[in-house]
Write a structure and sequence with these properties.
273 residues; alpha/beta; 8-stranded mixed beta sheet
Length: 273
Amino acid sequence: MSYTKLFANTAISEAYQKFRPTYPIEVVDRIIKYLQEKHQSPLTLAIDVGCGSGQSTRNLSPHFEKVIGCDVSETQIKKATETEKLANIEYRIGNDETLPAEDGSVDLVTAAQAAHWFNLKKFYSEVDRILKPGGCLALYGYGNAEFHQNSNEGELQKVFNEFYNGTLKGCWEDRRKHIEDLYANIHLPYSDAVRDHSMAIEMEYTVSDFVGYLSSWSAFHEYKRLHPEEKDILQTVLEKFSRAFDKDAKSADHTTMNVFYPIYLLLGRKPNS
């Protein structure tokens, strides 16, 4: 399965925009702080690669004169442009091997929950080409859901793990392992680099909205392709989550749960000379 097709269909794009976790502002603040440690010139241009429907791109807007979000999926770019129009953001169809900028013109390149799909050798070469001396590369994302601060967290985690590792076994791309290990085996091309695992996304979902998030997974859509006869797999998962709260539950619409996603952040700086 080519990654260029994984998030191309409209159903995934809509679920992506509606249900995917939103990064806390602390992530961008940490990136900007790192960037400005040795790069004091005005921040003119940032490029967000694999921008999806624009959640990570919009967070960069207050810090730069211009931000470009690029993604291989036309449907994702369409959804990004429809969602929130900020004057200094431009969305383009593009990929990790041909970044839309001139040599030495970019202050920051980011990729949120995307770099594990890239040809990293070619991507890093392009990053090095477009970054200004002292400019930065930031790769970040979030790991699998964890159910802390729920009285029934063990049951909730069990339902999630069974769906992820059981039902969808064989439907995940091999590169998903990088998400599972929080990019432990992805290394930046610059010696001046740091890792930061101190942050997390904290979300409160209704059970039905969390199941909506599961519907944004590429592996779920691969499962549907392989098992077209199974029409109600998400309804089954929803009922299992509901019963984890209340064995007599009839509806998940008003049941909420706390969900945490550990954040991984890799920061690297292009040498000044």
